[in-house]
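Dissemination and training. As part of the outreach component of the grant, students in the summer workshop were shown how a complex can be specified as a set of sequence lines and then modelled as a single object. The example used during the hands-on session is reproduced here so that future cohorts can follow it. Participants entered these lines:
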Amino acid sequence: MAVGLPENIFITRLDAAANWARSNSLWPMPFATACCGIELMATAASRHDLARFGAEVMRFSPRQCDLLIVAGRVVMKMLPVLQRIWLQMPEPKWCISMGACACSGGVFDTYAVVQGVDRFIPVDMYVPGCPPRPEQLLQAVMDMQAKVRRTGTIMGREFNIRDTPAGPSPFDREERHRIEDAQFVQLGGFDASAAATGRKGVSSNA
Amino acid sequence: MPLTPVDTTPTDSPDREYVWTLNFGPQHPATHTTLRLVLTLDGEKVLNAVPYIGYLHSGFEKLGEHLDFNQYVTIVDRMNYLSPLANEIAWHHSVEKLLGIELTPRCRYLRTILAELMRMHDHLLNLGTTALDLGGFTAFLYFFQQREHIYDIVELASGQRFHTSYTRVGGVLFDVNMDWVNRVRKFVREFPKVYEEVDRLLTKNRIFVDRTKGIGYLSREDAINFSAAGPVARASGIERDLRRDEPYLAYADLDFDVVCSRGGDCYARYLVRMQELLESLKIIEQAVENIPGGSVNIGVESDMVLPAKPAVYRSIEGLIQHFEVIMPNRGYPVPREQVYAATESPNGELGFYIVGNAETRAYRARTRPPSFIHFSMFPHLIRNHQLSDVVAVLGSINIIAAELDR
Amino acid sequence: MPDIAALQARFSTEITESAFRDNHRIDVPAPVVFDVLSSLKNDHGFNMLVDLTAVDWLEYDGAVDRFSVVYLLLNMGSGERLIVRTPVNLPNPALPSVYSLWRGADWMEREVFDMFGIVFMGHPDLRRILMPEEFDAFPLRKDYPLKGRGERHNFPVITRSGS
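and obtained this result:
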C-alpha cells in the first residue's frame, strides 16, 4: 500500500538541507583591522544592509561565528592573534579575505606587513579593492553562499582534502633572495637560513 | 609572541589577593580596530590600564622615505581612514611649505570644503560608534546615512569613494564641476534635519548622559602636559584651533567659531564634536558659494606640478612635463631643508616633519599623529572608573589604530 | 622668541639659530639639551611638547652626526613654535628623558627608542612600543631594508585540514 506524503513534507538530501541552512545564516566574525573595517561597517549599515543575505549577525566572539572576514592589513604582531581566532572558530568555517592588504599586502610591502593572510591561514574567497566597495563585499557573501551550497557536506569532507596551503609559500624565492641580499648590509642578529625554514623565530605562537 | 597579559602589580604585593587582570583586545568590537589594554581591576573598578599598541604598525614612515611626494599621498590616505582627505591635505600642506608653493585661490577653497567635509565625516562616525558602543544603535544608522552622502560627494570629485588620493603637489587631481557644487549644496541643506534628530536622540538621553558625564576627566593643565590637541583639548578648555590661530588654505576668509568646553569629560568631548559639525557646515556653506574661478592647479610654468591628463596625451609640452615630474632620475629642485607644518585635522593637530634631500621624495617623513598622543593619556583618563566606562573613554578620544601605529 | 644669546651665555655653550619658511630652530649640543628644554619650558613659556622625533642622517650628503633628535615646542600663550634639534651618535645613542617636563613625551620617546634605538635615560618605562618585544632591529634606521629581513613571514602555516 502506498503511503501518501502529507503536503507539508518534502524530501531532500541531508547535505543539501545542511547547505541550505548554513548558507543562509553565515555569521561573520569581523576581523576588522583597518580601513576595510569601515567599509565592512558601511556594508552592514543603512544603505547596503548586509541583513538581506542573512549575514548581519556580527559576532565578536569567534566561538559563535562561521565566516571569518579578514578586513584590513595583518601585521607581524597581529598574525598570531588571527591564527588563534581562526583556530577558535567551530566547524564548519569559511574565510573571506577582504581588500588588497589582506589578500596580498597591497601597497604596504614593508617589513611589518604580512604579504597576504593566505600564506598562513586557509582562505576561501578573495575580495580585491582598496578598500572594496560594499557592493563587492555583498557579492562575495553571495558567492560564498553559492560555494557552500555547491561544495558543502554535512560532515565537512570537503575541508579534509585541503591539506596544502592555498597561498604562496611564506618564504618564496623572491623573499628568500631579498633576505640574502639584506645579509650584506646587516651587522648580525637575525639568522636568515633558520628563518627561511621557519624553525627558529622572532615570534611564533602556534 | 606571548599573548598572556603582563601583570603590572608587584608579585609580592598584598594587593594581588583580590586584584584581577583583564585583557581587552586586540580584537574587540569597541576598539573598532586593533589595540590592546591590560586592565588591572578591583571588582569592576579600573586600578590601572596598560595599553599595548603596534598591532597595526605597517611602516608608513619608512614607506614615506621610498615614495615621492605625489605617491606617498596614497599611503597617508590610509592613516586616519575616517577622514582620508584630511590626511592628504595635511601631507601636501607640509610638502608645499617645503617647496615654497603658493596655491591658487580655487584650490584653496576646494581643499577647505573637502577638509571640512572630512571633519564631518570623521565626527559622524566617531559620534555614531560611540553611541553604538554605549547601547544606542539608531544614531549610528542615521549618521552613517549622512556619511554615505559625503562618500558620494568625494566620489564625484575624485572617482573613488574611500581612499581618494585626490590632492597633488600644487593642486588636486581634477577640477570639480557644477554638479558637484549642487551636490554639496544639497548636503548642506539636508544635513541639519538629521542632526536635529540625532541631537534629540542623544544629547539629553538619560542613559547616554549618565554614561558619559564625569567620565574620563582631563583638566586643562593635564591636557597641555599630555600634548593634547583638537577636540580633546578644546573640550578641556584649551582655546586653540589651527584654523584660526595659524590660518591656512582659505580659513582666514571664512567666518566660524572655535568650539570649546570647560567640562573636560566624555560628555564635553561629545558636545564639542556635535557643535563642530555645525561649524563645519557653516564653513562649507560659505565656501561653496564663493569658490573662485580660474585654474585649480598652479601654472604649468612651475616644474613641480603634474600637468592635466589631456595635456599629457595631446601636447608635447605636457608629455615632457609629465615625464620630468614622474621619472625618478629627473624631478625638480627640492630644498635640502627640514620643515614642520601642521593642519587641524578632525582629530587634532596633524603635522608632518619633512626632511628634504634634493630628491622628489622625502628623506624623512615624520607624522605627528593625534591618535597616538591622545591614546598615551588613556591610563590617566580611565583610572578609578568602572570597566564599562572603558568604551566611553575610548570612543570619546577617537583612537584610529592606523594613525596610532602607522 | 627666546633670546638665544642669553641662553648661550647661561649654559656657556654654542647654540645656533636658524629659520626656514616660518619654522624657527635652534641646534643644541646633547649635554645641555635637558637644561635648555627645561629653561624653555619654565622661563619662556613653551609649555607644550608638540612632537618628539628623530632623523637618521646615514645617507644624507655632508651630514656629520648619525642621528638628530627633534623637539617641537609650542608656547600656548603666544602661539609661538620652536624646534630644538640635538645631535646623537653611535655607539651609545643616549639622551636624558624629558618625561619629567612633559608627560606627553612618554610614548614619543618610546617610539623613537623603538624605531631608532636611541635610549632616553631616566624614562620610567622604556620598552618597545610598536614592534614586538622580540624584534631585534631598529626599522627606521637607514641601514634597515624597507622589506625587512624576513621577520614578517616567520610564522607557522595553518592548512584547512589541519585546523
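Chain A touches chain C through 50 residues (CB under 8 Å). Students were then asked to discuss how this feature might be tested experimentally.
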